[in-house]
Design a protein that fits this description.
With 405 residues, this protein is an alpha/beta fold. The N terminus is likely disordered. It folds into 2 domains: 101 residues, no CATH class; 289 residues, Peptidase S8/S53 domain (Rossmann fold). Helix content is 24%, strand content 21%. The strands form 3 sheets. Strands 1, 2, 3, 4, 5, 10 and 12 form a 7-stranded mixed beta sheet that branches. Strands 8-9-7-11-13-14-15 form a 7-stranded parallel beta sheet, with helices on both faces. It has a 3-stranded antiparallel beta sheet with strand order 6-17-16. Belongs to the peptidase S8 family.
């Protein structure tokens, strides 16, 4: 990755980092992948070298290293202006290389703070979102299901999670602390506690095994390589469900990114489900509906739109299909109450970022209810049990996600 100081604010068109993603042919072994990278770029680090510690991929790539994400068969290659063309031409000619794509910046989907005036129809025991998806009435809690939240990290100091075993991992060579609050909020919605400190329940799957992967920096920015590194580690860790409330604009693209398409399929093949927020770039009040962001626009990744407490479609929720891929499902994404870093502790936010973890938590409840519900079967169960909404299928997919009773 390029240094943080050079990272841009989010733009409508995707912004390249200057690095490249190299995808290898399926079935190629790690030793052969490393040999190909050695010929093209010199020294190579593999993600498996750092499985028990946090890895700072930025300096590794910045100082001339290629990083091989060996579980998913993708490498991040530094794009040095001096010999970039030579490196790429060497790799492109190799039979084991499937494709080479530029790496782009990704961002936490913009979240907007809302007041805590109590006008969001929460009950005394549960937030309106937890009620809307039926989690409060569910007999299931997500126990035994590994839920990964790939975001800005998590605040370990939060009292609601005291004594809870949570796995932390970072792609930035530091601990997975959350400064922005986006990741702590999303993690809280997906798997926050059943009984918060003198507060209503805000977590859909309170007994799920929570895995936190910091793939965005403290400003909410990262590269696709860091997201892929987190996905690689989550798959190695055996996570059943991966929730991503980050991405980048589709811009003028007419197709999804085939690298993410393949990784989403690889996850399904391994019994895992990837879920992503659709994006917040629409202005529906003036008739503008934005394309679904990457990676949510991949057909192998479940895309999530946002509705409000009256089940109305939010103004910001992206919805225009990219290629043949549209919205798959909808979830609460306005006035969502959840945990944020200390000392504030709690906050209401809105965005499709808040909707995606509602789906991830619901998926964990379904997965607990029936051990055979994994990957595609779990996807089908979520879609087939969604509550119909009075909106176009393009905007909300199958409807409002529902938890098992």
């Amino acid at each position: 990755m390029a240094p943080s100081a050079k990272r841009p604010a989010r733009l409508d068109e995707p912004v390249p980092t200057g690095n490249y993603l190299v995808q290898f042919e399926k079935g190629l072994n790690v030793k052969d992948e490393i040999k190909l990278l050695h010929r093209g770029n010199g020294r190579v680090a593999t993600a498996s070298d750092f499985k028990e510690v946090e890895i700072d991929m930025g300096p590794l790539v910045q100082y001339g290293e290629a990083v091989l994400l060996d579980h998913i068969g993708v490498a991040v290659l530094r794009g040095d202006e001096g010999d970039k063309n030579r490196q790429l031409s060497i790799l492109e000619k190799k039979s084991g290389v499937r494709r080479i794509y530029p790496e782009f910046y990704i961002f936490a989907h913009t979240d907007v703070s809302e007041d805590d005036s109590g006008t969001h129809e929460d009950s005394l025991s549960c937030t309106w979102g937890i009620e809307a998806v039926g989690a409060c009435a569910s007999r299931y809690s997500g126990r035994g299901i590994k839920v990964a939240v790939l975001d800005t990290g998590f605040d370990r100091r939060h009292p609601d999670y005291a004594g809870r075993l949570i796995k932390y991992w970072s792609a930035f060579g530091c601990d997975a602390r959350d400064v922005r609050g986006h990741g702590t909020h999303c993690a809280g919605t997906a798997a926050g506690p059943r009984a918060a400190h003198n507060r209503m329940r805000y977590g859909v799957a309170p007994e799920a095994d929570l895995h936190v992967y910091k793939v965005l920096d403290d400003g909410g920015t990262g590269g696709e390589g860091q997201l892929l590194l987190g996905i690689n580690q989550a798959m190695v860790d055996g996570c059943d469900i991966m929730s991503m409330s980050c991405g980048r604009s589709a811009g003028s693209a007419t197709t999804s990114n085939p690298i993410f398409d393949d990784i989403g399929q690889a996850a399904l093949d391994e019994g895992r489900l990837m879920i992503a927020a659709a994006g917040n770039s629409s202005s529906r009040d003036i008739g503008y509906i934005a394309p679904i962001d990457f990676p949510a626009n991949s057909p192998t990744i479940m895309s999530v739109a946002a509705v409000d407490s009256r089940l109305g479609l939010t103004n910001f929720s992206s919805g225009v299909p990219v290629g043949t891929t549209g919205i798959d499902i909808a979830a609460p994404g306005a006035g969502v109450f959840s945990s944020v870093p200390m000392p504030r502790k709690y906050q209401r936010l809105r965005g499709t970022s808040m909707a995606a973890p509602h789906v991830a938590g619901s998926a964990a409840l379904w997965a607990e209810s029936d051990p055979s519900l994994r990957a595609t079967k779990l996807w089908d169960k979520l879609v087939s049990n969604a509550k119909a909404l009075p909106h176009h299928q393009r905007d909300v997919g199958a409807g409002l996600v529902q938890a098992p009773r």
